[in-house]
Amino acid sequence: MSALNNNLFTKLKFSFTLTFLLFYLTGFAAFSNGSIDSIKGLLPHSLNNNTNADTATINRLNKLAEDYFHTNPDSTYYYAKKSIALAKKINYSAGLARGLLQTGHVSYFNGKTAEARQDFDEATTIFKNLRDYKGLSACYISYGRMYTLLANYNLALNYLNLATKANKHINNEEGLADTYKNIGIVYYAMGQLPNALDFYYKALFIAVKNHSTILSGEIYNDIGVVLQNMGVYPNALEYYKKALNIIQNENDLQGVSTMNENIGEVLLAQTSYDNAIVYLKKGLAITKKQNDIDGLSSVYADLGLCYAHKDQMKLAISYLDTALGLAEKYKFVYNQAYASIGLATAYNMQKDYKNAYKYAMEGQALALKLRNLSVRASAALQLNQTLAGLGQYHQAYVLLNQYIDLKNQLKDNESIQKLTSYNYELNFVTKQRQLEQQQRVHELLFQQKIHNQRLLNTIFLIIILAMIATSVVYYRQKQKQKRINAMLQDRNKEVLQQKASIDEQAHKLNELNILKDRLISVLAHDLRAPLSTLRGLFSLLQDNTISHRELVEMIPNVLKNLEYTSDFLDTLLFWMNSQMENFESSVKSFSIKEIVAYEIEHYQEQAALKGIKLIDHVPHYLMATADPNSIRIVIRNLITNAIKFSKKNDTVEIYASPDNEQNILIRIKDTGIGIPPKQLAKLFKSKIDSKTGTNNESGTGMGLMFCKDLVEKCNGHIWVTTEQNVGTEFSFTVPASLA
């Protein structure tokens, strides 16, 4: 029966439910940016009668109830009831009204109109007392939807007109668009398609203007329903697909269900019954899960018609009987008409005109009450076939003419002209919005360009300041070195003047000379890497080799290296002062783990660049008694040497363990290239010719001699074991803390 179109309210259910959430969120939802999970996380662990009630908790419960409606209406009802109980407990009127609005929505969704009306009445009274026009509008829209479902169109329009006034009073454009859309639904149900299109497109223009994507999707669905009833199936599918593209990523089960049913009904009208059944059963699964009575009644009727056309009459009658029973029980007038006409269709196909007559007459009476053109046309066609089968040809002829007249009204030129006109206007509005968006994008890009330039200037300033800071530190070190040289000259003069103490003075001068050389070697060894990094960065900037984004990504590492270098210089200066004054004064108890972890963190990136694993095996509980800065310098030197002489896929491991009751043994072990015997014999004894590393890294040859001196000044001992192409292990001891 291709003339029999789908159930109005199931086809528009997507519109009913999505817009309720959309309007409610714009009206007064307390936490509009929160997801269900985030709101649940803010609720008390136990929600019962003993829960301490506060307005924030009630608002969260109401928001949770709203968000659950599209996936689990039972949860909506549960959380709304909780919010109502808590709101009554603390006399929180606004929270109580919002909770009642939610329970009323679920009640009429499940066919309990009396309970819904009671909740809406109470919520409306509260919103009026609070002068909450958004809340009032939400109530009026809910009334309108409910009375549309009950085919009481005059009452539905009265409430929707009140919603229009409320939204205009507070200049709420999004709420106004939702109201216009629902007025369009009423006019569609009354069979006044031109008026329905007027209000649908009024709503759509506002939605497009305000970038209301979800509301636009609902209206596309509603226009698709009009096109389907006019028999313009390709255009109807086009609008349904627009709506589906919008809702498919919104986790809106009701919208997905409605789209599946709509597509299934278009396929039914196009006699593609098997494909229609596939889509209808997808919709049926969701409606069952959500206990959507209206949707169940409609889908059962659609499936019944599909199976009737497939000549599976027993199954068809079963589905149609079930659909009619649900519609009668919950007083869904449209569904009753739809199911009755469907049963008349099935019996007419069997030529069982006696049973067909009963249902055709019921369908005709309900269609006249509904006034919907599509339903009236379907009812007239089936009653025509029934009367013709019973031999009442004159009455059948009258109904045939009535059917033809109704079909012509459905395809009225005025509706088609309005569709064409509104589509042209919509395209113009859409293009205008796109131009505005492009203009905004250009403005944002220009602002971003200015921001990037400022950021680049800031980065240059930071780099310059970092260079100045490094230069200042270097200058101070140079000045201190000059003072040391002056001291050496003074000592030489004293040696010439005081021959009696020449040996002692010569020894001191020798120590100061060694100190000077070691300081210079350490500076050359540890300042080379950060300065090279800065030089390389400036070269890349000068050549425009790297992009701004790459530069921004490199800045944190450069700053980290500079911070590490500054820390190293402070440590070195501290050590140098202790050398010149009193080394014993810098001895203290410290954690070996902290020092090792700090050095590993700094060299982790350097090791990763060479493909080397840097592993810390040092336990947390080991405490040593020595100069921590001296031990830090030793560990740093040994780690850098291990990385320097290791290759890709090698490992560098640091161990620490008690050596005896007095000492702790620290080992730095690598699986690198090892040390040749000739060079091994010179280690720790004098300056050696430093070999280049596995990536051609250079060195001073002073590092290990410096380490030996520091370890011995800390009352420790250092040694090395190595095997070429197997690896090297440097070990040293440090006094254990007795505390």
TrEMBL record:
GO molecular function per UniProt: phosphorelay sensor kinase activity
The protein's matches in InterPro entries, at most eight in alphabetical order, are given as: HATPase_C_sf, HATPase_dom, His_kinase_dom, HisK_dim/P_dom, HisK_dim/P_sf, Sensor_HK_Regulatory, Sig_transdc_His_kin-like_C, TPR-like_helical_dom_sf
Alphabetic keyword roster: Kinase, Membrane, Phosphoprotein, TPR repeat, Transferase, Transmembrane, Transmembrane helix, Two-component regulatory system
Lineage: superkingdom: Bacteria
TPR repeats mapped onto the chain: 177-210, 217-250, 297-330
Task: Give me the segments passing through the membrane.
Answer: 455-475
User: For the Histidine kinase domain, which residue ranges apply?
Assistant: 522-738
| Database matches in Pfam families | HATPase_c, HisKA, TPR_10, TPR_12, TPR_8
Q: What EC number(s) does the entry state?
A: 2.7.13.3
Instruction: Check the record and name the CDD domains matching this protein.
Output: HisKA
Catalyses which reaction? ATP + protein L-histidine = ADP + protein N-phospho-L-histidine
Q: Which PROSITE patterns match?
A: HIS_KIN, TPR
| Cited PANTHER family | HISTIDINE KINASE 1, TWO-COMPONENT HISTIDINE KINASE
Q: What protein am I looking at?
A: histidine kinase
